[in-house]
Inverse folding.
């Protein structure tokens, strides 16, 4: 028991799909990848993103207000809370089923609604950068911007998306409860969508309109839980330098210093791979022995066995 490796897994968009039907299918594959790691003898904690989902929930709340103007405007922080619950529901159900199917009967699964404290003065509030919701055409984007006051940006040649502020996580408010559950052997889903962004106002925690990047929240969660591994599961098997260019090179093992140099040289796209590498570096350099791994969802087990993925160590 004592030598069980503790792993925080950060699930990306491909682990959840982009609508309810896709999500219900995707979580089956995700649950299978996670239970593979449990069968390997790892203690797993799950965190996840919510870009498409929080966009959908927030749009639905706006549509309600357009339909009935007497309805209050639902803040983005509340939409993050709703997305945590809705994703957690599907994930915990799929995980429970996969555990039972494999004859693992003694691991309870639960989702922790998690608040994450941010700095109200974080410069990110002045520069909305995190894309959420669906990809749209220029015309659709202009219409939404006009109707709801959203800020829309072109996202790497793939279309237009709404962008929101994405402050850095400072503190996981429910960390004590999460730790107790993990120490007790429960399979916990926490910090969904990066956590519900809040700031402190005396004894009160107030929601603040933003979406925290799940890569940074997962890295903080992994440090707070004294995890051995942070595994960021995404849509690519490895991280590349010169990504998409003729001299593209896929990375296997890199040091924190090499990762920092590649970041400086601009090899990783700001809205997608850069936060992963930054989060991986933050974790790997926080204490000797901590390793971060970035790989494909379906390759999680191969990755933990050292057969694939990009591994970042101090
Ligand atoms: P997630 O939902 O998992 O956070 P993102 O789309 O935010 O996924 O980030 C993963 C994507 O980053 C990959 O699918 C790939 O298209 C892109 N990417 C950008 N730069 C790189 C790079 N240098 N190496 C590998 N992938 C990269
Ligand atoms: Mg991302």
């Amino acid at each position: 028991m004592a030598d069980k490796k503790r792993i925080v897994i950060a699930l990306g968009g491909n682990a959840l799909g982009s609508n309810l039907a896709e999500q219900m299918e995707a979580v089956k594959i995700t649950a299978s990848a996670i239970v593979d790691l449990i069968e390997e003898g790892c203690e797993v904690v799950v965190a996840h993103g919510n870009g498409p989902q929080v966009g959908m929930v927030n749009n639905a709340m706006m549509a309600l207000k357009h339909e009935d103007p007497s309805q209050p405007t639902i803040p983005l922080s509340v939409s993050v809370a709703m997305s945590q619950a809705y994703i957690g529901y599907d994930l915990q159900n799929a995980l429970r089923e996969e555990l039972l199917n494999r004859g693992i009967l003694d691991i309870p699964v639960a989702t922790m609604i998690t608040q994450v404290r941010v700095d109200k003065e974080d410069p990110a509030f002045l520069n909305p950068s995190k894309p959420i919701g669906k990809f749209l055409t220029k015309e659709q984007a202009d219409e939404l911007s006009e109707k709801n006051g959203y800020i829309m940006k072109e996202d790497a040649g793939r279309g237009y998306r709404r962008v929101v502020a994405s402050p850095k996580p400072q503190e996981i408010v429910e960390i004590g409860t999460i730790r107790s559950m993990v120490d007790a052997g429960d399979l916990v889903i926490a910090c969904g969508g990066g956590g519900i962004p809040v700031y402190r106002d005396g004894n009160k925690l107030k929601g603040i309109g933003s979406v925290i990047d799940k890569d940074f929240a997962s890295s903080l969660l992994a440090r707070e839980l004294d995890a051995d591994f942070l595994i960021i599961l995404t849509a690519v098997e490895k991280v590349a330098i010169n990504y998409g260019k003729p001299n593209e090179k896929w990375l296997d093992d890199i040091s924190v210093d090499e990762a920092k140099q590649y970041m400086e040289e601009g090899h990783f796209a700001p809205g997608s791979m850069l936060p992963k590498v930054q989060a991986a570096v933050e974790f790997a350099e926080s204490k000797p022995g901590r390793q971060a791994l970035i790989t494909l969802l379906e390759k999680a087990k191969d990755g933990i066995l050292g057969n694939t993925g990009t591994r970042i160590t101090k």
Observations:
- The mean pLDDT is 95.
- The radius of gyration is 19 Å.
